[in-house]
C-alpha cells in the first residue's frame, strides 16, 4: 500500500471505509476501500462474494475493480475513482432534473442491472449513495451485499437501506429474487423527480405504512411462501387504505414515467419488469417534437365527410421515420426511390398517399403508419415538406386504450 497516498476519507460503512488516494506509480487518482474485518490467510478473501461479483461483472455502468492488496492482515480494494454519488448530486441541486436528465441516469442504472442479473448476481443494496457519477456517467458500486441469483435462502434479514427495501424483504421473506433491485430502481426513479425519498419510513412498520398509503393495500397472496404478512395487519386503518394518485405526488413526471414507477414498485415481485424489459418501456423512447412546430394542435371541424376530432399539422420532417411521431408515426422520406401510389386511401378526400414499395398495411396490429405525400403529378416531394392529418381517436389494439 506504500504505492498509494491517501488524500481524504470519502465514506465509512458497515463493511469498510473508502478513501480518495493517489497512485504514485501512474499518477492516477483512485478510490481505496479498506475492509474492516481481518484476513489472516490469503485464501480467505477469495471467498468474498463482493470480490467474486466484481471480478465477474465487467461493464461500463459497474464500477471497475483495479487491484486487490492484502497487507498486515488487512484487505484493500483499489477502484477507479468517481467524483460524486447520486445522493450528493440530488442534495446539492438547486432545481429539479429535467426528464431527459432522469432518463439518462436511469438508463445507465438499468443497463448495469441488466448486465449484473444476466451474469447471475443481484445487488440487494441499490440506493443513490451507491450510484457513482462522473461527468453524468453513472456506475453501480458497493457489492458488499451482492448475492448469486442461483443461491438458496434463507437470506440475510437486513439488506438495503430501509427507504429502498422491497416489501418482500420488509415482510421478512426467507427467499427473494433480483426483483428487489427493480423495486429499488423504481424508488430511485421517483426520487430523481422529487429530490426526496418517496417512502421515507422511520421503522420497518412505518416503511410498510408509507408504501400502503401510496400503492394501496396489497393482495397478500402475491408474496412468496414464508413471508411474514402479519406485519401488514399491524398498520393502522389498514382496511381503508386505497392507492394514491401518483401524478399528484410527482406532478413533474410524465405519464410514461408514472407508469414505469408503478410497474417497478409493484407489490408482486413477479410483476416487476426486469431491467432489459424496463429499458424497452415508452419512458425511454419518447420521440422529440420536430422544430419548428406551427399550430401543433389546431382543433377544427371539417365540412367534408365525417367530422374529425383533431387536426394535426406538422412541418419540416426529419429523414427517418422515428424522427417524428405522436401516437402515429409521421415522416417524409425523400430518399425513397421505389414508391407505389395507393388510390382512394383518403376515402374520398381527393388525395393520394405514397407508400414505400413492400410496405404492408399493419393497421390490424398497429396504428403507426409512415406516410409520404406526393404532389399532384405523382412526383416525389422535395425535402422541405409538410403534412396535414385529420383523425379521430381510435383504440390501440395492444394497449386497449385510445
UniProtKB/TrEMBL annotation:
Gene3D superfamilies cross-referenced by the UniProt entry: Phosphorylase Kinase, domain 1, Transferase(Phosphotransferase) domain 1
Key word DNA repair present: no
Family statement: Belongs to the protein kinase superfamily. CMGC Ser/Thr protein kinase family. CDC2/CDKX subfamily.
SUPFAM superfamilies: Protein kinase-like (PK-like)
Signal peptide segment: none
E.C. number(s) listed in UniProt: 2.7.11.22
GO MF, one annotated term: cyclin-dependent protein serine/threonine kinase activity
Keyword annotations from UniProtKB, A to Z: ATP-binding, Kinase, Nucleotide-binding, Phosphoprotein, Serine/threonine-protein kinase, Transferase
Name of the protein described by the UniProt record: cyclin-dependent kinase
Domain Protein kinase: 4-284
Reactions mediated catalytically: L-seryl-[protein] + ATP = O-phospho-L-seryl-[protein] + ADP + H(+); L-threonyl-[protein] + ATP = O-phospho-L-threonyl-[protein] + ADP + H(+)
Entry-linked Pfam families: Pkinase
